[in-house]
Amino acid sequence: MEKEIELAIKRGHQVFVKSVDGSTLTGFPEQSSNPEKLKMRTALGSFWIPMEEVSYVSRLITFK
Predict the structure, then answer these.
(1) For 16-64, how does the pLDDT look when each residue is reduced to its tens digit (9 = 90+)?
(2) pLDDT of residue 64
(3) Nearest Cα to 42, choosing from 60, 25, 19?
(4) Cα-only R_g, the chain
(5) How far apart (Å, rounded) are the C-alpha atoms in residues 17 and 59?
(6) What is the spatial distance between Cα 36 and Cα 2, in angstroms, rounded to a whole number?
(7) 27, 41 in Cβ contact below 8 A?
(8) Element containing residue 55 per DSSP (H, E)
(9) What is the pTM of this model?
(10) What is the reported pLDDT for 63?
(11) Hey, what domains does the chain have and what are their CATH numbers?
(12) 2 pLDDT band (50/70/90 cuts)?
């Protein structure tokens, strides 16, 4: 899971994140100074999600 996030940050891909409570979030992951939290930039603003609450991550790749 963390490998997918690292690849998405490196390549500028969006990610789909599902938390353990079932909520979902789509956006661009960013480097965080705290490795225990995932920083996401979305259309609604920036969010920090504790990694222990993340249950699923999928990269969204657009083809040009």
Answers:
(1) 999 999 999 999 999 988 989 999 999 999 999 999 999 999 999 888 7
(2) 76
(3) 25
(4) 11
(5) 9
(6) 10
(7) yes
(8) strand 54-60
(9) 0.86
(10) 83
(11) 2-60 (2.30.30.100)
(12) confident
Count, in order, helices (H) and strands (E) of the chain: 1, 5
Could you give phi then psi for residue 4, rounded to 5 degrees?
A: -65, -40
Instruction: Give the Cα separation of 10 and 20 in Å (integer).
Output: 25
Four-point Cα dihedral 54, 34, 48, 59, nearest 10: -50
Instruction: Report the greatest alpha carbon distance in the chain.
Output: 34
Rounded CA-CA distance 57/21 in Å is: 14
How many Cβ atoms are within 10 Å of 27's Cβ, its own excluded?
Answer: 19
Using the Cα atoms of residue 33, residue 5, residue 24 and residue 21 in order, give the sign of their dihedral. Answer: negative
